[in-house]
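FORM 12-B: Structure-to-Sequence Request
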């Protein structure tokens, strides 16, 4: 146990642990300056500095001058309202932990962050438990980030520019007020872990199926009533957390159907009857339109659709235990798929044609958390 008022250190030559000290910020500042002076003549550079739970209201001035080789800085659990310019002097910093502070207002992050060496060195950034209402624009230029945590803030949305963080492997945005997932989130090729739990999300864009490296997707405690069929394309997904969503206890059925346009009827006829044509036989707009055809997923139906289709909920079994409602599109209300028949009960939907999908997809998801 640490004695009140005592400054303790070292968990090894390269680490300085000054957490939970019962001293004033001024005393801590003096201690850091003294330790920095000692380190200037030391053979081994200090790589890790731990300053959590010290009632800090600003970053110590001694950071930049006394610890130039720092790789990890932990200032969590303080009363910081801003990370000052001292941060920019830590040119080789790889991990910054600043959770549970009071960050989020104007000037919370230092000016010039995106142009500083931190743009190339910082790999892990944890700003969870603060007061951010939007993702700071300067964070979206930290191209070397592997992990970004902004959970437990007051975020209202995810900016489309999130796609700039191409090296991101873990994104934690749980415990906010996010209502929509931007399609651009699907453009992160290295993303392994995506946490969006405890928000107000109502739907999942099909573009998330482009996250081919994704292993864990946490969506529990949202407002989801269905998942897009494309979720089955996440071939490396091992964990899908869905508990606390409406889809777990009920499902929706939308039987509304707008008649197709004459353009779509013409294109459907050409596709269904396999009519041969050359670029000189048809108008340009019809030629372009024909390239957008989607086949009806019902294996018993040879139909196609373009803009007009029937949106349905189809239940697909996973691991022989859970039945997930996935968004399902049909070419017409008369399609013979069991999931389009209003006479079938909800418990018998897709009893037949979901079995093939389940046999293919069950091995992809080793863990589905619904309860």
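FORM 12-B RESPONSE
SEQUENCE OUT:
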């Amino acid at each position: 146990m640490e004695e009140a008022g005592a400054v303790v250190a070292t968990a090894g030559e390269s680490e300085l642990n000054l957490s939970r000290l019962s001293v004033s910020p001024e005393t801590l500042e003096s201690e850091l300056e003294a330790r920095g002076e000692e380190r200037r003549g030391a053979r081994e550079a200090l790589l890790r500095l731990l300053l959590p739970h010290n009632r800090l209201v600003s970053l110590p001035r001694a950071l930049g001058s006394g610890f130039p080789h720092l790789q990890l800085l932990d200032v969590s659990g303080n009363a910081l309202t801003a990370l000052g310019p001292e941060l920019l002097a830590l040119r080789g910093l790889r991990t910054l932990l600043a959770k549970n502070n009071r960050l989020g207002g104007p000037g919370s992050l230092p000016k010039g962050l995106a142009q500083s060496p931190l743009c190339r060195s910082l790999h892990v950034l944890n700003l969870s438990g603060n007061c951010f209402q939007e993702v700071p624009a300067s964070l979206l230029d930290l191209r070397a980030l592997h992990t970004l945590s902004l959970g437990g803030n007051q975020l209202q949305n995810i900016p489309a520019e999130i796609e700039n963080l191409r090296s991101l492997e873990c994104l934690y945005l749980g415990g906010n007020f996010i209502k929509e997932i931007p399609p651009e989130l699907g453009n992160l090729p290295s993303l392994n872990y995506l946490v969006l739990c405890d928000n107000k999300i109502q739907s999942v864009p099909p573009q998330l199926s482009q996250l081919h490296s994704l292993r864990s997707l946490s969506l529990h405690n949202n407002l989801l009533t269905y998942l897009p069929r494309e979720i089955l394309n996440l071939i490396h997904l091992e964990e899908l957390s869905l508990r606390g969503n409406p889809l777990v206890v009920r499902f929706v059925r939308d039987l509304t159907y707008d008649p197709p346009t004459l353009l779509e009827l013409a294109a459907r006829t050409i596709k269904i009857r396999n009519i041969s044509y050359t670029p000189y036989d048809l108008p340009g707009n019809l030629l372009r339109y024909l390239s957008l055809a989607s086949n009806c997923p019902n294996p018993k139906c040879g139909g196609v659709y373009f803009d007009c289709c029937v949106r349905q909920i189809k239940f697909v079994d996973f691991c022989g235990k859970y039945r997930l409602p996935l968004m399902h599109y049909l070419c017409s209300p008369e399609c013979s798929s069991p999931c389009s028949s209003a006479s079938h009960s909800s418990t018998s939907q897709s009893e037949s044609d979901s079995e093939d999908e389940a046999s293919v997809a069950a091995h992809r998801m080793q863990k589905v958390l619904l309860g």
